[in-house]
Amino acid sequence: MHLRQIRAFITVAEELHFGRAAKRLHIEQSPLSRTIRRLESDLGVTLLHRPPRGVHLTLAGQLFLEDARRILLAVEQAQARAKAVAVGYHCTLRVGLSGDIGQTRLSTLLALCREEAPQVKIQLSEMPLTQLVHGLGATLFDAGFAMLDQAEAGIVSAPVWNDPFVVALPARHPLLAFKEVPLEEAVSYPLVLCDPQACQGCSLQRERLFRTVDAQPAMVEYVATHGLMLAFVAAGYGVGLSTAAHLAACQQPDVVSRPLAGQTAVLTTFVLRAEGDVTEPLRHFINRAERVGRQDTGDLRRI
């Protein structure tokens, strides 16, 4: 089994179409099909169903896809760490990101790391929450950021950043009459929110907030990213729920924010790591993240 076979399989599994996968890999469809057949022969299992229309993963294919991604990630990390040492870094911290992590706080943290520990390379990877948690347990990552407050066994989770929820409104919306919008008023309008599968932790915190009012939110659209949510809000499709930090980073001119009335609810970002001893570079990294979190949004750049 070769890495090129693994890369080819992952691409086909993501596209579920040999033509599109071949285009992504910049090869012809016939050699790609032969590569997958050879991989299945080497493994002794069928990874893909190939009906006349479309391609589907078998159960074995679904399980192998998870392992294949971990194998490829481990190889890429090994390459990155070797290159980092070659150009003068003393060590590499592998940090996973799950969900729409606030850009302002993240960039401030990276700038602080670059200033105080220039010999430590920070390698960032974005992924779903389940993949991050599994990667921490399998030592593929040293730490991770997520909106998760209930970690699995063997994973330590601690809050680092808190951002109050705000209501994102299109220009000339009726709710702009409020200086602070009551939550029950906000949820009475069609809502545009980030998809629960794309940001599981954020969704859990959001649902807890909705349960504080006696009203059933009216969903009009689920979107994959925070930026897309603001685009729908600006176009008048509905009302969004965000934070001031996220809105400041996106700079959407046709969206106006209002704080929630009488609410102390915040969107909390957690730093995750595996249980056990903490290396000195990781301890300093977490300490810097906590320092960033202790600052007011307006003071982030003055840390």
Mean pLDDT reading: 86
Number of helical regions: 11
CATH topology of the largest domain: D-Maltodextrin-Binding Protein, domain 2
Structural class: alpha/beta
N/C terminus separation: 49 Å
Largest sheet: 9 strands, mixed
Fourth-tier CATH superfamily name of the largest domain: Periplasmic binding protein-like II
Q: What string, H for helix and E for strand, traces the elements in order? A: HHHEEHEHEHEEHEHEHEHEEH
Q: Would you state the CATH class of the largest domain? A: Alpha Beta
Spans of at least 5 consecutive residues whose pLDDT stays below 50 are: 297-303
Give the strand tally: 11
- Specify Rg, calculated over alpha carbons: 22 Å
**What is the molecular shape?**
globular
Regarding quaternary structure, what we see is single chain
In percent, how much strand structure appears in the residues?
Answer: 15-25%
* Number of structural units classed as domains: 3
Q: In percent, how helical is the residue content?
A: 40-55%
CATH architectural name of the largest domain? 3-Layer(aba) Sandwich
